[in-house]
Structure formats: C-alpha cells, structure tokens
C-alpha cells in the first residue's frame, strides 16, 4: 500500500536578534522600510507558517514595535490578534487594530502599519485560488477581489468564520497525517467562509482599454479600473507595474497619448456618471458621490465632469 506524502509545508524561526527579525519579516512579506524598536518587554520573536500553495496558517509573536510598508500582491490575508495592536493603513484609510476582530489586509496597493507587542494569527490564500472560488460562488468569471478593511464583519458571520478557522486549524496545524484531498476540502471550506464573512467586491474582468495599450500600460489601466474606488495614486499604479512614475508617464504618452493621472481621473468620472445615472435625486447627492470617488474639490469636479460629458453632474442625477 502506497502512503501519500504529507502535502503540508512548514517553516518556523525564532530568536532574540532584532536586526535578524526585521530582515526575516521583510523577506516573508516582501515589505520595505521595516523598522523596529524595543519596548518594555525583553525582545524575542517567533514566526511559523504551515500549509500549501493554496492556503497557509501563519503565527507571529513579536515583542517590540514594528512599522513598515507592504503589499499583498499575490495573496489575500486575514489577520487577528490575541495581544498587542496598533494601526493599519497608516495615513490613508487608517484603522486601529487590536484583539477581538479579524481584519483583511488592505487590497490593491501598498499600505503602512505600526504594530507593537503582538501575538498575531493569519490565514493566507493564494490570489488566483480565492478569486476562482469567488467566481464559482458569485456565478461570474474570476476577477480581482477588493476587501474593505475598514468595515467590521457582522457578529453572526464572525461566529461562522471562527468555527471554520478552528476546524481548519485542527487539520492544517494538527500532528495527524493529512491527505491532499482533505487539505483541499479544508481550504475550500475556509475560502467560502472568508467570502461570506468579509465585505468585498468582485470587480468586472472586462474593462475598456485604450487602443495601443500593451504590456505594463495595459496592466496599469486594468489596475486603475480595478481599484479606482480606492485612494490609489499614480505612484501606486507605477509601483504595481514595476515602473517609476516618470517611466509610467513616458509609457502612457508613447502608447496611448495621455498622462496616467488623466486616465485615472477619467475612469473615476465615468464611475461617478454611472452611479448618478442609477440613483434617484432623493437617494444621493452629487457631493456625496463625488467625494466617494476621490473628488474633494467640488467646483473643479463639476467643471471636469461637464467637459467630459457635456452636462453638469446635477443634470445627470435629475435626468
């Protein structure tokens, strides 16, 4: 009888060298600018990962203050704390993070964090896997998912999530042998629990691409469409496609004859128009919709809207 090899991969490290810890976490999360400072606690750290290429469980103990920037490019991550806390998405859609309520990593762009003396657990899903499960669940084609890390899940949904995590942890982290089939079923059940618990949007995979857009420009335009509702900037777009801001500007001028910030503003104006067309005048205001799509100066917004569509936003709403 052939015994199947255990499909789980595990990694664990610990120590009391602060510099080594910083380097390890930067490498593990593909982060940048990580800085740490000791607190009143004697410094030590422990980091553990168990799982496969689809889903993994991670745990961290870090007795110090750590801050830095990271972006979950190829994964979706849920995290929760047993101890410690701090801030996530510092300087943007900033959220205080402490024990009690799990939170998704901000999606679609880099974010800064500032955490101290944490006992942290995480569940990580490979990006295309979770998007595939979401497509089956929503009856759509696979597309990027955007999670609102500022919105806490409902208590009844959290109960289901916590119960599934406990079941999954007993399988993934347990000492008993696990077959690939059992691990795959566990990953699927946990992915479905995640999607039913954490508020998210499935973005339309079909976007309008300007003629001539190829390579990184095409990728940049798709990224703009996918995350126009978040506070991304041209800098975020450039970082996402691996170019400098100047390199992105030159590529856009060469291929599509316009600046990337102009295209991003146009995409957001189109989204505002779509929303105003669907709404009734008594349901929303132009100002509220404009601010939601990143237009803080309403006078300039109104002028740009009229130039693009030949009418003022209030006319679209009342029409």
Explain how this protein is built.
By secondary structure, this protein is of the alpha+beta class. The chain folds into two domains: 9-197, Sandwich (Jelly Rolls); 215-318, Arc Repressor Mutant, subunit A, CATH 1.10.10.60. It contains eleven helices and ten strands. The chain has helices at residues 18-29, 127-138, 155-172, 180-197, 215-227, 234-241, 245-255, 260-278, 286-292, 298-309, 313-318, and strands at residues 9-15, 32-37, 45-51, 55-70, 75-88, 95-97, 103-104, 111-126, 145-147, 200-202. Strands 1, 2, 3, 4, 5, 6, 7 and 8 form an eight-stranded antiparallel β-sheet that branches. A two-stranded antiparallel sheet has the order 9-10. Helix 2 (127-138) crosses helix 4 and helix 5 (215-227) packs across helix 6. The longest helix is centred in the C-terminal third of the chain and has 19 residues, at 260-278. The radius of gyration is 22 Å and the shape is globular.
